[in-house]
Design brief:
This protein is mainly β and about 120 residues long. It is about 0% helix and about 55% strand. The strands form two sheets. Strands 2, 4, 5, 6, 9, 10 and 11 form a seven-stranded mixed sheet that branches. A hairpin with a 5-residue loop joins strand 9 and strand 10. The radius of gyration is 14 Å and the shape is globular. The termini are far apart.
Length: about 120
């Protein structure tokens, strides 16, 4: 079992930056993948970025060059550095973790990111 607590959302002007964090507790050494999805009102949930337990990262095209995902040495906390934010980045961002040998994902509570023009 894994519990995820995410933080770092807020209100920022276009062009600004935020850093999201996602702290995992529990069976942290079973985590093979962590990342964020986001969902705006009336939109489908979409993958933003993900990172594996060996540090391989992937990004959605709409954030490449602006966002960076990382994790600490203990691999129990993931970070999403978001730079050059745009109003269209406004959404609720949900951290997730995937454990080995299961298809069940664990989810954080979500954090609101609002980018003003």
């Amino acid at each position: 079992q894994v519990q995820l607590v995410e933080s770092g959302g807020g209100l920022v002007q276009a062009g600004g930056s935020l850093r999201l964090s996602c702290a995992a507790t529990g069976n942290i050494f079973s985590i093979v993948n962590m990342g964020w999805y986001r969902q705006a009102p009336g939109k489908q949930r979409e993958l933003v970025a993900a990172i594996t337990n060996i540090g391989s990262a992937n990004y959605a095209d709409f954030v490449k060059g602006r966002f960076t995902i990382s994790r600490d040495n203990a691999k129990n906390t993931a970070y999403l550095q978001m730079n050059s934010l745009k109003p269209e980045d406004t959404a609720v961002y949900y951290c997730y973790a995937k454990l080995r040998f299961t298809t069940n994902d664990y989810w954080g509570q979500g954090t609101q990111v609002t980018v003003s023009s």
